[in-house]
Specification:
- Keywords: Signal.
- There is one protein chain.
- It contains five helices and eleven strands; from the N terminus they run αααααβββββββββββ.
- With about 280 residues, the protein is an alpha+beta fold.
- Bound molecules: 2-acetamido-2-deoxy-beta-D-glucopyranose (4 copies).
- One 2-acetamido-2-deoxy-beta-D-glucopyranose (NAG) binds next to α2.
Length: about 280
Amino acid sequence: MGKIRIWLPCYYLFMILVLGFSPCVWCAPASKQTPANANANPTAVPVLASFIYGQLANLTKVFHKDITQVLGFCIDDVDAELFEAFNFAKNLEFLNNCFKETKDVTQRLCNAAEMKFYFSSFLETKSTQKANILRPNRNCNLTSWVPGCEPGWSCSVNKNEKVDLKNAKDMPDRTRDYQPCCEGFFCPKGLTCMMPCPLGAYCPRATLNKTNGLCEPYSYQLPPGKVNHTCGAADRWGSETDGGELFCSPGSYCPTTTKKVICSEGNYCRKGSTAPRGKSS
Ligand SMILES: *[C@@H]1O[C@H](CO)[C@@H](O)[C@H](O)[C@H]1NC(C)=O
Ligand SMILES: *[C@@H]1O[C@H](CO)[C@@H](O)[C@H](O)[C@H]1NC(C)=O
Ligand SMILES: *[C@@H]1O[C@H](CO)[C@@H](O)[C@H](O)[C@H]1NC(C)=O
Ligand SMILES: *[C@@H]1O[C@H](CO)[C@@H](O)[C@H](O)[C@H]1NC(C)=O
């Protein structure tokens, strides 16, 4: 599972590549909409999980050549790596919980335009450290800053509005019903949508450390003067102290993006592990 470690920084590049320069893949046949009823029916979770995975997998198929050409130095097998990073099918608990909590996950997931907006900030700043500073946009700007714009928080679109996840041009209006970002997802500051954390990352809910005012284990603070605001969940894939990456810490493994287990004796767990390894293997 150590590969994921190498893979993730590449994933940023990959998103820029795919979303930044080739938006048209997202406009291809509109037959695959968000699964209907997914919000109302918790048994539809596997459908949504495979939908999210399917979207990412389809993208790599189309861009396989570009990806291997540009990123071949760090990704041996694009399909396998992607499958490893986003194969939520094995453990759907976090999606299930998110359904229960928000009732409308699909209306909170970032569409292609929002993802592109987020990932292109890496390209502009040429640094993952500054990537959490996003430009003003449709939902979060100088004149309007809803609580869902805060790090670790998200909003929903208008009731009954269906988000076209493949739309790479327009961010939807997403300023209703602010709630903390779900466990297993991250919600950047300056955006009101959620993105799933890849496997090998650890994205639990944050708790306030009253000593330093940080929402731990992340490195954001509560907005000043907003007495009713609380810590949400992850705000990005990484903290500055951790080299911009939010991996399961060494000595533990994370079978899902919401669970961290101490490595048992006789095994070893590298940073970003999803399972322990025997010393002999
Ligand atoms: C992925 O591509 C396959 C075959 O082209 C298609 O059947 C499937 O619906 C696509 N999935 C998504 C989520 O776009
Ligand atoms: C600022 O945010 C508000 C509320 O979401 C939106 O109506 C407005 O169009 C945004 N302004 C800009 C310049 O994007
Ligand atoms: C809170 O932050 C302080 C200062 O950084 C640290 O020493 C302390 O261990 C933290 N508390 C918890 C509960 O993590
Ligand atoms: C904060 O919450 C309390 C209790 O729910 C409420 O009475 C108060 O008006 C809220 N304050 C603000 C600034 O929203």
